Structures are given as C-alpha cells and as structure tokens.
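Example 3.2
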Amino acid sequence: MRKNSIKNTRINEEVLRGLSSIIRGEIKDPRIHPMTSVVMVEVAPDLKTCKAYISVLGDEEARKNTIAGLRSAEGYIRRKLAGSVNLRNTPEITFISDQSIEYGVNMSKMIDEVTRDIRDRASDGADGEEGADREEVPGGESADGADEAGDEDDES
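Structure, written as tokens:
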C-alpha cells in the first residue's frame, strides 16, 4: 500500500477518529489536559507504526504533561484502538507535540491587534481633518465651486 493511497488516507482518518474519542472520553489520567486534540495521524503503509500529532491548548508545562500522560497510556490506547478500528495490525503509536493550533490562535490575535490599531489611527485622523479639506461658502457651494451633493448640472 502506498503512503498517499485512498486506502491509507481512509485508515488515517479512522485511526484519528478512534484516537480522538479514546483520548477525549476513556483516559482518566490527570496529566492529560482537557483541551487536547489529535491534529493529524500518519499510519505507515505496513500498518506497524503510527505518528499521532497532538495539540494542547495551554502552556508548555501542560503540553509536556499531556504528552507524558499519553506515552504512559500508550498500551491502553493501543488496546482500545484495536477494538474500535478493525485492522490487520494495530499500529504502535508515537505521540508528537504539534503547536499549529496555538500558533494559529497567536497569529489571529496579532492580526486583530494590527487591524484594531489601523482602525484607531484612521478614526483619529478622520476626526481632526474632516472639515479642513473644503471651505464652506454661503449658498451651499464649497470654495472649489462644486455643489455639496455633487450635482453640478441640476436641470429642474
């Protein structure tokens, strides 16, 4: 079986679903943070090994404790996975810390800060310069001769 075949992709998805449900509902280890998610799973084509990329929304200590808790419960997780996913061989799982979700959240916060700063600068600049561009002349026309409504040729 090739690495990117349809069968291997389907197996990866099934193992990901199984691992997610086991980690979320069946493991009682207090080291495992409640905001733990399985981001991606790569099962080898021979079904002997599996890399599970785990994301933890929390600080560095929570991430390390979660990975340690998952590694200590690897046998239990593998046995539960064998019962939920019907494969010839149940792969040996390697848990790898993945920080992509946390990185995305931090990038989103930085983008929000920058857009907020740009909006604040634009509103601060617009408040002080609003009436400074054109001088009003009695009769509804500005100093440059154009009508306020923008209608220069009004034929009524």
